[in-house]
Design brief:
The complex is a heterodimer of chains A (586) and B (580). Chain A is an alpha/beta fold. Among the domains of chain A are: 2-315, Up-down Bundle (ABC transporter transmembrane region fold), CATH 1.20.1560.10; 416-491, Rossmann fold (3-Layer(aba) Sandwich), CATH 3.40.50.300. Chain A is built from 18 helices and twelve strands. Chain A has helices spanning 2-9, 15-47, 52-99, 112-152, 156-204, 206-211, 215-267, 275-286, 291-315, 376-383, 406-410, 427-432, 440-449, 453-458, 476-490, 506-519, 555-561, 564-575, and strands at residues 336-343, 353-360, 365-369, 393-396, 399-400, 413-416, 425-426, 466-467, 494-498, 524-529, 540-545, 548-553. The longest helix of chain A is centred in the middle third of the chain and has 53 residues, at 215-267. Chain A is elongated, with a radius of gyration of 35 Å. Chain A starts with a helix and ends in an 11-residue tail after the last helix. Chain B is an alpha/beta fold and 580 residues long. In chain B, the strands form three sheets. In chain B, strands 6-9-10-3-11-12 form a six-stranded mixed beta sheet, with helices on both faces. A four-stranded antiparallel beta sheet of chain B has the order 2-1-4-5, covered by helices on one side. In chain B, 63% of the residues lie in helices and 11% in strands. Chain B is built from 19 helices and twelve strands. In chain B, helix 2 (15-47) packs parallel to helix 5 (127-155). Chain B folds into two domains: 5-314, Up-down Bundle (ABC transporter transmembrane region fold); 330-415 and 532-580, Rossmann fold (3-Layer(aba) Sandwich), CATH 3.40.50. Classes of the chains: A alpha/beta (586), B alpha/beta (580). The interface between A and B is large, with 183 and 173 residues.
């Protein structure tokens, strides 16, 4: 009930359209009843061979209803579907707005295939909510009242029987169908979600599966999910196949009962004989109003299922609390300071970061190095406000950053990460994410700075070239350089380099580092890396291990101290043949 | 009219169930005719002859029997149609999935995975209405009106003639509108697919959008995309509903014409009431099957549109499977002594440029071959060809004198361990992910493999240890840990060939050093092909192949290539220079 009301609330903005569509829907049903009723009236009156004038009205009625039914139906369907899609657009935007603040910290448990399925399948299930749930119920209600009253005028008993038959058909059969369809319907929705996630993951991982000879098993697993879905669907078929039959039978039995009770009324003169066939036709035609209700109940149940799953997302608290009265961030220069900051991903695990303190002044270059799992990625999560930190303080120009909106604070950074996400869009669209109004000149400038000028020039479609899913049609180096270009275009005072060269070959790495050095000369740079290469332009190096800063200083000093940095450096030296080493390295 | 040859072929395998469904529908139609006759007899007796209820009571018994029979047939027909569709969908879906895996990575690389998944799930589901509603209804729409005509003509030839003359209007209008509607449905399907891909892209890139400060603005874009979908769909519906309108008009107007016509003849005494009412009851039933077909036309059309995409995939030829018959398939010696690429060229499907061109080299048993070169030089393509993800478009790969395309792919891949640049993590536990290549491995073996890959301590630190569930793209492991997970997968396998794609790309120097030792273990007694971007890993190679734009420009040992002073020497100099 709560979910139903919640769904109905989405209809509020278009109350007028909803009323119009319900009116048209009722008018359609009334036309159908009118057509058969007046036809029967015409025939039975004609059998009594009155004057033609008596029949004239009936003839006009028959013709009118013959035309109006189709027209009303057409208009009704257009109106109701339009209402429905507006409802859907509202839902989709609502859903995105619900998910957006949760990402990425709170979305770890939902793989995106499943999330996609939620949005598309659940929202598409709700596609039926207005057209097949709300509208039919409203129209059926109006018809039951109208027809019960009409027949009741001849004999209250007849009106009561018709209304009862209609209500039984409209609620009893749907309830039965609901009871039978509920559990397999639930199973089918869940199985479809699993099948969708499994399909996406198998197709994306088809290389791994093929190389490991697991493609056959993956197919077996997918087909297994498919046959379980079929099993649930078979149960749904057995739960729904009797609906049409049941509705037809109920309509006919009601008609027989009305006829049985009306015959004596003719005999004792309470009812004109020619009204008997009319009554039979009216009863049969009235059931058109309740026939869609069995299906409506099924859709209702599915809509509740999908609606509840969508509203469930709303219950997840956002990753970061928004400040009540957010402050505006002052323009650069910006001084960033971390004081004893700690981070724990959840209560059960150890701190990912412990007592981190650092200072990044305008134009300064800071490197954070350390082995993998040392906490480098966690530091980025904290700095970009993707996860909230625990103890400690982060200050921007001496103001606690918790007083800024996370999005505003994040907007001060550009990030070049090791696995840049490239959107399935054109090159221009991918770049313009960083600066919506950027002209082609600017785009070409940053592409040049990122070392992609030659590559872009070679593309037949230039900036309009479509870069495929995950940018897979680009090589790793090209994707990375596109991310660099995007970050340069973003043009923020603070830049985070998250191992941007991790996937590049030696030449590209060297060239890119040089290009970054000149392009970022005026920026405050925080460079996260495990490669002790090209660090000489850094003002300070922090060595991270086990979530703590264990050493800090200039590269040359750190080597002299003989700590972790020196050891890592030595290992890296040893791995490289003597011919490659230059005596002046680092 | 609106039939798809492929779908009809698929339906033929269930012809018995289809025939049963149609037969049950016909029996239901027969019951309708009998019901109309019985009902008009009762009404006529009461209304025209003034009989009492007692007198007509015996007529009610057969009427009730007919009513129950009609319900029974209707129930069985619906059940039979539903079950039939489920069987056909299941068969097609598993065909599609199997075929996708046979087409393999070379095909999937150029496709959108969300779109493929959507075709296999929703596309197949869209066939349901085609099989369960449209197809049986198409047969009934031909048969039931015929049955009504057969009984109406002897009773009143004029009404029969009206029915006969108006009936063809319905199929004619359906054909006229059908063409437009089909094109519109295809547009809608495309819109839905695009919307689906757009959402997946948005969700997977949500982190990137957040970093660029675009995630909030994207909500409007999501709204725009959904609004676009609404507009496209409404355009489709305006046409589809128009067909329903015309079909409904033909039905209702003809009923009206018949009612007026028989009414006027009754007035002149040319027709009896019983006959007239019988015809009036049957007139809507005459058009009903045709109108139902019209309503289901939309369902049929979206089924056909979905079928087009499904069969386009199913009919894509599998290129990486041997074309020869099973008997002539070669057996290969383990371990293979020499694998030679001879004048091998390859272009990805649908691309004009060659990814590798006229490449020749040999891998000898126990030797390490390193591929170096700039990104896009063709290193990954050579690895893919060796893995048989695709067959060369020209040239041949020989395994001890046997053509690689002659060796069953499953047997061949058992000879190879693949460590990809970025392993795909599957929904499941860490243990299951490590055991990808050998699912029957015991936990002890998995732990040993993780230990060799220096991942065991990290896993042990997780609350759920080896049972930790990994999300999409392994969201809980860092880049370096993912790389080591790929190595752990490799350590579980026992195969003579090893293909490594940038093994140390993500690792810090400390791990790299330890991994170096582990690598030596993994490399022992194996024939190895390494795609290397870092020179330290290749200096010990027995053979270095330097690739440039799909061609091998230099090959030899490190010292010889340095001495030659060519491309490789330049590469090494830049590398050394970058560390200054």
């Amino acid at each position: 009930m709560k979910t139903t009301l919640r769904l109905l609330q989405f209809l509020k903005p278009f109350t007028g359209w909803v009323a119009l569509s319900i009116f048209l829907s009722t008018a359609t049903i009334a036309s159908g009843i009118g057509l058969l009723g007046t036809s029967a009236y015409l025939i039975s009156r004609a059998a009594l061979q009155p004057s033609i004038a008596v029949l004239q009205v009936a003839i006009v009625g028959v013709r009118f209803f013959g035309i109006s039914r189709g027209v009303f139906r057409y208009l009704e369907r257009l109106t109701s579907h339009s209402v429905n899609f507006r409802l859907l657009t509202g839902l989709r935007v609502w859903l995105y707005r619900t998910i957006e603040p949760l990402a990425p910290a709170k979305l770890q448990d939902f793989s995106s295939g499943d999330l996609l399925n939620r949005i598309l399948t659940d929202v598409d299930t709700l596609e039926n909510f207005y057209v097949r749930v709300v509208a039919p119920y409203a129209a059926a209600g109006l018809t039951i009242i109208g027809m019960g009253w009409f027949l009741g005028r001849f004999d209250p008993k007849l009106g009561l029987i018709l209304a009862s038959g209609l209500i039984l058909s409209g609620t009893g059969i749907p309830l039965g169908a609901y009871a039978l369809g509920r559990s397999p319907g639930k199973t089918a929705v869940a199985l479809k979600a699993r099948l969708s996630a499994a399909l996406i993951e198998s197709i994306q991982g088809i290389g791994d599966l093929t190389a490991f000879n697991r493609a056959g098993e993956a197919a077996v697993r997918l087909n297994g999910l498919g046959s379980r879905l079929a099993q649930a669907q078979r149960r749904m078929v057995w739960g729904s196949a009797w609906i049409n039959a049941g509705n037809g039978l109920l309509a006919n039995l009601t008609m027989v009962l009305v006829l049985w009770l009306a015959i004596p009324l003719v005999a004792n003169g309470q009812l004109e004989g020619f009204l008997l066939p009319v009554m039979v036709m009216l009863v049969l035609a009235s059931f058109e109003a309740v026939t869609p209700l069995a299906v409506a109940a099924q859709y209702h149940s599915a809509s509740l299922e999908s609606g509840a799953r969508l509203f469930e997302l709303e219950q997840i608290s956002p990753a970061l609390p928004e400040p009540i009265a957010p402050l505006i961030i002052v323009p650069p220069p910006l001084h960033l300071e971390l004081r004893d900051v700690s981070l724990s991903y959840n209560q059960s695990t150890d701190d990912a970061l412990t007592d981190i303190s650092l200072r990044l002044d305008p134009g300064k270059k800071l490197a954070v190095v350390g082995p993998s799992s040392a906490g480098k990625t966690s530091l980025i999560h904290v700095l970009l406000r993707l996860w909230d930190f625990g103890r400690g303080k982060i200050l921007l120009n001496d103001t606690d950053i918790r007083l800024f909106r996370p999005a505003d604070f994040r907007a001060q950074f550009s990030v070049i990460s090791q696995t840049a996400y490239i959107f399935n869009a054109t090159l221009r669209q991918n770049l313009r994410l960083a600066s919506a109004g950027a002209g082609d000149d600017e785009l070409h400038k940053v592409l040049l700075q990122a070392g992609l000028a030659e590559w872009t020039a070679a593309l037949p479609d230039g900036l309009d070239t479509w870069v495929g899913e995950h940018g897979l049609r680009m090589s790793g180096g090209e994707r990375q350089r596109l991310a660099v270009a995007r970050a340069l275009l973003h043009d923020t005072p603070l830049v985070i380099l998250d191992e941007p060269t991790a996937n590049l070959d030696a030449i590209t790495e060297a060239v890119l580092i040089q290009q970054l050095q000149s392009a970022l000369a005026t920026k405050s740079v925080l460079w996260i890396t495990h490669r002790l290469v090209g660090l000489e332009w850094m003002d300070e190096i922090l060595v991270l291990d086990g979530g703590q800063i264990v050493e800090r200083g200039k590269a040359s000093d750190l080597i002299k101290t003989g700590g972790l940095y020196a050891r890592l450096h030595e290992i890296q030296q040893r791995a490289i043949p003597a011919t490659f080493s230059s005596p002046t390295s680092l | 009219m609106n039939f798809d040859r492929n779908l009809l072929n698929a339906a033929r395998r269930e012809w018995l169930a289809l025939a049963l469904t149609i037969l049950l529908g016909l029996l239901g139609g027969l019951a309708i005719i009998l019901q109309a006759r019985q009902l008009s007899a009762i009404l006529s007796a009461v209304f025209s002859e003034g009989q009492t209820r007692g007198a007509v009571a015996p007529l009610f018994v057969p009427l009730l029997i007919i009513l129950f029979g009609r319900a029974l047939f209707s129930w069985l027909a619906d059940a039979s149609a539903g079950l039939l569709a489920i069987r056909l969908k299941g068969r097609l879906r598993s065909q599609l999935v199997d075929h996708l895996f046979r087409l393999g990575p070379a095909y999937a690389r150029g496709e959108n995975s969300a779109e493929l998944a959507n075709t296999a799930l929703q596309g197949i589901e869209n066939l349901d209405a085609y099989f369960s509603q449209y197809l049986p209804q198409a047969a009934l729409a031909g048969l039931l009106p015929l049955a009504v005509l057969v009984v109406v003509f002897p009773k009143d030839w004029l009404s029969g003639l009206i029915l006969l003359l108006t009936a063809p209007l319905i199929p004619i209008f359906m054909i006229l509108i059908g063409k437009a509607s089909e094109a519109a449905t295809r547009r809608q399907w495309n819109a839905l697919s695009r919307l689906s891909a757009y959402f997946l892209d948005t969700l997977q890139g949500l982190r990137e959008l957040k970093l660029l400060g675009q995630s909030e603005r994207r909500a409007d874009k999501v709204g725009e995309a959904a609004e676009q979908y609404r507009l496209t769909t409404m355009k489709v519906l305006r046409v589809t509903f128009l067909s329903a309108l015309v079909l409904e008009m033909v039905g209702t107007l003809s009923t009206a014409v018949i009612a007026v016509q028989i009414g006027l003849r009754l007035l002149r005494g040319g027709l009896g009431f019983e006959q007239a009412f019988f015809i009036l009851l049957l007139a809507p039933e005459f058009y009903l099957p045709l109108r139902l077909l019209g309503q289901r036309f939309h369902a049929g059309a979206s089924g056909i549109t979905a079928a087009r995409r499904i069969y386009a995939i199913l009919q894509t030829p599998v290129l990486c499977e041997p074309v020869v018959s099973v008997e002539t398939l070669a057996d290969i010696a383990t371990p293979p002594q020499t694998i030679s690429f001879q004048h091998v060229s390859y272009a990805y499907p649908g691309q004009a440029d060659l990814a590798v061109e006229d490449v020749s080299f040999s891998l000898r048993q126990g030797e390490l071959t390193a591929l170096v070169g700039a990104s896009g030089a063709g290193k990954s393509t050579l690895a893919h060809l060796l893995l048989r993800f695709a067959l060369p478009t020209a040239g041949q790969i020989w395994v001890d004198g046997e053509g690689l395309d002659n060796i069953p792919s499953a047997m061949w891949r058992k000879q190879i361990i693949w460590v990809p640049q970025q392993p795909v993590i599957f929904q499941g536990t860490i243990a299951e992910n490590i055991a990808l290549g050998r699912p029957q491995a015991s936990l002890t073996e998995i732990q040993a493999a993780a230990g060799l890959a220096l991942l065991d301590q990290r896993i042990a630190a997780l609350p759920a240890g080896y049972n930790t569930v990994l999300g999409e793209f392994g969201a809980r492991l860092s880049g370096g840990e993912l790389q080591r997970l790929a190595l752990a997968r490799a350590f579980l396998l026992d195969a003579p060939l090893l293909v490594l794609d940038e093994p140390s790309g993500h690792l810090d120097p400390a791990s790299e050093e330890l991994l170096e030792q582990a690598m030596h273990r993994l490399c022992a007694n194996r024939t190895i092909l390494i795609i290397a971007h870092r020179l330290p890993t290749v200096y010990r190679a027995d053979q270095i192949l330097v690739l440039d734009r799909g061609r091998i420009v230099e090959s030899g040992k490190h010292s010889a290539l340095i001495a030659a002073g060519g491309a490789y020497a330049r590469l090494v100099n830049v590398y050394a220079g970058s560390r200054v």
